[in-house]
Automatic annotation (TrEMBL):
Protein name: NAD(P)/FAD-dependent oxidoreductase
SUPFAM superfamilies assigned: FAD/NAD(P)-binding domain
Pfam families listed in its UniProt record: Pyr_redox_3
Domain of life of the native organism: Bacteria
Lineage: Bacteria, Pseudomonadati, Pseudomonadota, Gammaproteobacteria, Pseudomonadales
Length: 484
């Protein structure tokens, strides 16, 4: 029988951060479960051409693991090297079970512990369960008539097949979000024809990337210099919330900047019209790229807007809504993830057999985006309303760890078995979140985005400054919890 004090599901930055924080707290009785056959999460899984982070690297890193980045916006290979350095530095590799795909988890009230059932590694038992599977781990592929008849190659950007040589081929990219904005410029010069199918255009801002010189990289190796740079970037980015939530004139100025950027990079007025969003900037994820627009203007690239979108797929290619047939050799699904309603992909059964899918039937929610009534000792990293559109997600993850570790330490110190947030505390917190959300561009910007659940609630984003969230997680509020 596999029994641990703490189990962590997922080995990406959320899982790594949880593991290191446990070690720093003197807790080493834990195990990490990873469904894939490798350790590392997003930046080891997403290896598509052009993959890179869209937050400056010194901020998109763990506070306890500085790194001498080669450029401001790190590319996938460097992010993977950073991930592997964190794993080695803190000795995490020997603490993981690979190919441990979780099928379901159940709370055992008699034993006051979780039973975690995996497909290949049996059942694990644990007092505390931390789900760190991440919001961008369940790829979504839309269905089109005839899709299974296609004789060419298809895959999602999340599962890029590097054994397939796309050079000189006719390629279709379905989707126009963040991953498409990276893939399109990377492969456009190498393919014969590239067809980009766009459902709705996104706002794009220039990418202020730069390579770090030898002296600058040396400075990044000094903790005081690294910390100073992180905070300078942090406060510069934190001001963006003013536009997203508090100031219509500010967001208007940003939108005008984006329109000028579009006009400068896309001279053709017809193509420019196709690329001009009808919603307020920030309502959907803002793309950060200086190469996406130029790639779309290439002679071998065609942008298909919604009215010319995919009607069906047959053996040789794509039939569009306006009656055109396009022969393609490869279809790449750049269609994102189930990041809202699919936050946790496996069934979770809590106290009195309460099912998480029933609790979240209307829309996912959680106290501090982390814990739920009727689910003792369960913590969700990057849970509902913890997304952050203006700064590093890792800042939020590290803030969540303050709360999670406080809960575990409090139970241990008092000689108790469980901690559970009260129903009224969760309701009060959730009401506050959605009251504040009304003022944000994500709710009022005139779009439907992956930030929203099927119910229309914005449940991906935190509606305020990231330091406000940090303050909420700094200290456990015992009155909001049931300790037993």
């Amino acid at each position: 029988m596999h029994t641990y004090l703490v189990l962590i599901i997922g080995s990406g930055f959320g899982g790594q951060c949880a593991a290191v924080n446990l070690l720093k707290a003197g807790i080493d009785d834990f195990r990490i479960l990873e469904r894939r056959d490798f350790f590392g999460g997003t930046w080891c899984q997403n290896t598509y051409p052009g993959a890179a982070v869209d937050v400056p690297s010194p901020l998109y890193s763990l506070s306890f693991a500085p790194y001498r980045w080669s450029q401001m916006f790190a590319e996938q290979a460097e992010l993977q090297r950073y991930t592997e350095q964190v794993i080695e530095q803190f000795g995490l590799r020997e603490r993981v079970d690979l190919q441990a795909d979780v099928e379901r988890v159940e709370w055992d009230e008699a034993q006051r512990q979780w039973a975690v059932h995996t497909r290949a590694k049996g059942t694990f038992h644990t007092r505390f369960l931390i789900n760190a599977s991440g919001p961008l781990s369940q790829p979504v592929i839309p269905h089109f008539p005839g899709q299974d008849r296609f004789q060419g190659k298809t895959f999602h950007t999340n599962h890029w097949d590097h054994s397939y040589d796309y050079r000189g081929k006719r390629v279709a990219i379905v989707g126009s979000g963040a991953s498409a904005a990276q893939v399109v410029p990377a492969i456009a010069p190498q393919v014969e024809r590239l067809h980009v199918f766009q459902r709705t255009p996104h706002w794009v801002l220039p990418r202020a990337d730069r390579k770090f010189g030898r002296f600058q990289r040396w400075l990044l190796g000094l903790k005081p210099a690294y910390k100073l740079l992180r905070w300078l970037i942090y406060w510069q980015f934190e001001t963006r919330v003013i536009a997203f939530k508090y100031s219509k004139p500010a967001i208007h100025l940003v939108q005008q900047q984006a329109l000028r950027f579009l006009k400068r990079q896309v001279p053709d007025p017809v193509l420019r019209q196709k690329l001009t969003p009808e919603f307020t900037i920030g309502c959907k994820r803002v793309l950060v790229s200086s190469t996406y627009y130029p790639a779309l203007t290439r002679a071998n690239v065609t942008l298909h807007s919604r009215e010319h979108g995919i009607a069906s797929i047959d053996e040789t290619g794509i039939n569009t809504a306006d009656g055109e047939h396009i022969d393609v050799d490869l279809i790449v699904w750049s269609t994102g993830y189930d990041a809202t309603d699919g936050v946790i992909s496996y069934p979770v059964s809590g106290k009195n057999a309460v099912q998480l899918r029933d609790v979240w039937a209307e829309y996912p929610r959680a106290y501090l985006g982390t814990s739920l009534p009727d689910f003792p000792n369960l913590f969700i990293v990057t849970g509902p309303n913890t997304g952050i559109g203006h700064t590093s997600a890792l800042f939020i993850i590290e803030s969540q760890m303050n709360y999670i570790l406080d809960c575990i330490r409090t139970v241990q110190a008092k000689g108790l078995r469980s901690i559970e947030v009260r129903h009224d505390a969760e309701r009060t917190y959730t009401a506050m979140i959605h009251r504040e959300m009304q003022r944000t561009v994500w709710k009022s910007g005139g779009c439907h985005s992956w930030y929203q659940s099927k119910s229309g609630h914005v449940i991906a984003m935190f509606p305020g400054f990231s330091f406000s969230y940090h303050l909420l997680t700094r200290a456990l509020k015992p009155a909001d919890h049931i300790l037993s």
